[in-house]
Amino acid sequence: MPTDQHAPRRILVTGVGANPGLGLTRSLLRLGHTVIAADANRLAPGFLLPSVVPQVIPLASDPDYPRVMAGLCRDLAVEAVVAGIEPDLEPLTQMVPQLEADGVRLWLPDAWSVRACTDKALFHEVLTEHRIATPRTWQPQDIDQVPDGTELVVKPRRGHGAQNVHFVRRREHARVLCELVPEPIVQERIHGSEFTADCLVDRTGHASVILRRRDLVKAGLAAVSTTFNDPDVRDLVEQTLRAVGARGLCCVQGFVSGDSTITITELNLRIAGGFPLTEAAGADLVGQMVNGLFGLPVDHSRLTYRTGVFLTNYIETLAVGDVAELERTAAGEGEAP
User: Fold this and answer.
1) Are residues 43 and 318 in contact, defined by beta-carbon separation less than 8 angstroms?
2) What is the pLDDT of residues 19-42, one digit of tens each?
3) Sheet holding 248-256, edge to edge
4) How far apart are CA 332 and CA 73, in angstroms?
5) Residue 209 shares a structural domain with residue 295
6) 300-321 pLDDT, tens digit each
7) Is residue 121 part of a domain?
8) Element (H, E) at 117
9) Over the Cα atoms of the chain, what is R_g?
10) Are residues 235 and 308 in the same domain?
11) Which of 8, 97, 215, 325 allows an S-S link to 224, with CB 3.0 to 4.6 Å?
């Protein structure tokens, strides 16, 4: 049956305890959709948003994750699932045939593309093969090959959300951190003007790209950001999307150095935490994502934006309340607090 983005849908969003999933939930609610808000944290802030259907789910690494997710989709008449955090991508990719057979839509690239974006060592290999500038990368056993004086970043190979990321100036410190960081890699630290590109890649591979400078970054999140336009940055972002076969909603991060060198640092197959600026600048990012999710054409003319629009973020108290009451609500046993 023909439909459009304005038809109310029942969409399950994972990772509503983190900024991207929380913001996506808010945007979907504003568009009139019903959101099943899912997270492994029983106190996830997304559970407190008005009118959501909160659900506690296992961690993506839990063997019970596929069974629980499939059951939720059937029991709650879920029409589509959107991942808000990286760990959910791999198990959801494996579940595509099962969920689609149950009438549940997902919009993900193939399994190789998911691995290329969630494995930082593989991402480096792919971009290097395509001659796209990306930070030099070493495995822990290769630290002795790091040139003298190179500033370094030690991070988990499959990490997310800026967790366990450390900046050091000496190989000896990097070697110690490799004993502490789970499954570590070592990368060259890049300096310059940091940016995020909010991207929507339709099913033909055509991409819309909205550029935001990350003017002030705290704990991996852009506290202050501004939209801008740069054809060279846009071109390299589009090359990166093609190199990894990205589809759907995603974001690319990188730096523009003082000598105008553009370096790509990562590509996330999810919405970015700072995407509200993109929508404030005029791009219908979530609305067009819903179109593509349900098999309708993406209207790229609705994804243009104004430059020079800024956004500032701050930490706020969303709610305080009774833990037991929230747990009952997330288990489907009570009203939302």
Assistant:
1) no
2) 999 999 999 999 999 999 999 999
3) 262-268, 248-256, 193-201, 207-218, 221-228, 310-312
4) 14
5) yes
6) 999 999 999 999 987 777 777 7
7) no
8) helix 111-118
9) 20
10) yes
11) 215
